[in-house]
Amino acid sequence: MTVTTEINGHSPEKLLAPVLSAFWDQPNSWALRTYLRHEGYEGMRKALAMDPDAVIALVKDAGLRGRGGAGFPTGMKWQFIPQGDGKPHYLVVNADESEPGTCKDIPLLYANPHSLIEGMIIACHAIRSEHAFIYLRGEVVPVLRRLHEAVREAYEAGYLGTAERRRQKLGVDGLPGLDITVHAGAGAYICGEETALLDSLEGRRGQPRLRPPFPAVAGLYACPTVVNNVESIASVPAILNKGKEWFRSMGSEKSPGFTLYSLSGHVANPGQYEGPLGITLRQLLEMSGGMRPGHRLKFWTPGGSSTPLLTDEHLDVPLDYEGVGAAGSMLGTKALQCFDETTCVVRAVTRWTEFYAHESCGKCTPCREGTYWLVQLLRDLEAGKGRMEDLDKLADIADNINGKSFCALGDGAASPIFSSLKYFREEYEQHITGGGCPFDPAKSTVWADEPRSTHLGVNA
Questions:
Q1: Which long-range contacts (CB under 8 A, 24 or more apart) does 35-40 make?
Q2: Checking phi first, is residue 302 left (phi over 0); if not, alpha (psi -120 to 50) or beta?
Q3: Residues 235-251: pLDDT tens digits?
Q4: Whose CA is closest to 74, among 244, 319, 196?
Q5: Ramachandran angles phi, psi of 136, nearest 5°
Q6: For 35-60, what is the mean pLDDT?
């Protein structure tokens, strides 16, 4: 896409930072031969020549933060793994991308899987692991096939396999063996939570574990384990290859580097935009052609539906961890869902809450019971059957979930409730006083023809 207008004195091309997506549009971008033409596995070779602790220090100094939602420093997470404990160490890559609105890891794996595999080899060297796992969302079968093929190519090239074969192919003395197992999950949103993912990987029902102990001490098979997001690990090779100063030249001081933004909803050109942390939604919309013609932005999510929604007054908020946090939300997975004035906030929040009620694992009472009752109230409000006191009841139930559930699913379910009541309480009240929703769903392209869910046993 070519955009000629300047943004803050810069051309749009200068605001983007294509690293992971640099050659997605090239033929056979997923193949090893293509990856090698773009400095593929150069970072791995540099890392294997370094002491493991030096690799951890480099990633830590670069300031890479987890790209899966929480933004925890990646190098620090690696540093938590105890050394000399005599136990196997494991690396687990969380590719169970299922947050509503999030679509970055799956395109990355589909177009450039070797960036992940190279990053995993570097990470395993750093934490002294000889076995790594990729937990992939099972519905994305084409990605699963492409990932299996990329792992096969890595074995064939000698990047993975027995110690003897790796030493022979890579020319590094003392190199241990390394295996990567690709596991397809069964489609549960809760398995995106790292401890539920570990339980699922071990063959049990995916439910969050009580912590402590944390995965770094007792994770997979009760051994020290690092769980990282796909984009986090895939970002590591470029840091090793080009250096920490290069990485820190992008983004902000506390949130350095490049990242993938998923732009979706009522925008002219939705898709993946890879830019430095700290870019704004206004700049991204300029690059993507803006909102759909004839419409304006009403509200948006900075990191998927589990993050507090923002409005058009937040267009110039820097999209980094500190900037979005100061605005009262979370950067999360950088899933920028944009909704225009045709969208009913109550309807959108109801759909999101139905999702969380359905995906709750049921292990803890606040989430299991609270999300159910949130859905009942929201459905009544949307249908015009609610009462004014229901708005306070809605906030009260959300407050009883937020911070009191076993994992972050409860917090995610409460976030759109709090934020929508903060910014659009009048719209909720209009549903009550007007006897129903004043919006015509046919005018909105979002969920216009979606049938009502009956998963809670309540007829729509």
A1: 35/112, 35/114, 35/115, 39/241, 40/114, 40/115, 40/118, 40/237
A2: alpha
A3: 999 999 999 999 999 99
A4: 244
A5: -100, 145
A6: 98
DSSP 8-state symbol, 301: E
Cα gap 167→319, rounded to integer Å: 43
- CATH code matching the domain that covers 18-246, chosen among 2.60.40.3500, 3.30.413.10, 3.40.30.10, 3.40.50.11540: 3.40.50.11540
**CA 225, chain centre distance (Å):** 20
pTM: 0.91
Alpha-carbon distance of 404 to 397, in angstroms, equals 11
∠ Cα 178 181 183 (to 5°): 165
Residue type at 118 in one-letter notation:
E
| β-bridge partners, 337 | 264, 301
CATH architecture of 345-443: Up-down Bundle (1.20)
pLDDT of residue 452: 41
State the Cα angle at 70 between 327 and 351, rounded to 5°.
70
What is the C-alpha separation between 353 and 340, in angstroms, rounded? 20
| CATH architecture classification, 250-340 | Roll (3.10)
- Show me where the domains of the chain are located: 18-246, 250-340, 345-443
Q: Which of 231, 224, 225, 47 is nearest to 122 (CA)?
A: 47
Q: What is the CA radius of gyration of the chain?
A: 23
Among 280, 274, 324, 275, residue whose Cα is nearest residue 304: 324
